[in-house]
Amino acid sequence: MNLYDRYVLPWVIDFACGIEPVQRQRAKIVPRAAGRVLEIGIGTGRNLPFYDHARLEKLYGLDPALQMHRLARKRMQQAGLEVELVDLPAEQIPMADGSFDTVLTTFTLCTIPDAAAALREMRRVLKPGGKLLFCEHGAAPDASVRRWQDRLNPLWKPIAGGCNLNRDIPGLLRRGGFRLDELEQQYLPGPRPLTYNYWGSASAAE
User: Fold this and answer.
1) 9-30: pLDDT as tens digits
2) Number of neighbours of residue 179 by Cβ within 10 angstroms
3) Fold of 3-204
4) Which end of the chain is more exposed for a tag (fewer CB within 10 A), N or C?
């Protein structure tokens, strides 16, 4: 790991993921998490203030980026939450089948190298009737914006921790074995190639 990824990138990501439009999106989806919850890509803990303590039984946070965990632990204390951190990638979730009532992923599917494989793992660890809650940025529906996303992606990805601007989020969810129960989408304030957002819930496809 180079010096940028170790010392600079966590603060860059934390700042970008803490801007007001993104925080408003978190507030729409995170409080719905209930029971035994697995957060994929807990990162610096930006979601922690939005959990409804009364709905949580146990919270796990999975992220392979150990350099992020110091900020996550600070936010755990501030939020008054106990979180079991797991430093493994989402393609290798070390839990038994049917372990969780809720899996949560926010602004994470853009960076996972094999997102479809990770989603299959998320599906595996969900209990029957469990929910995947998601809030992600991805490919825009406007052709002109999508072309800019495709042009910018090779330049953006190395400086943004592997983030991809142009992933088809609904398509990924379906390839991962999920049925989309709720799906909302819109541009958030900001540059359009960076801000097309998808959020909602999904369950295991039959």
Assistant:
1) 777 777 788 899 999 999 999 9
2) 13
3) Rossmann fold (3.40.50)
4) C
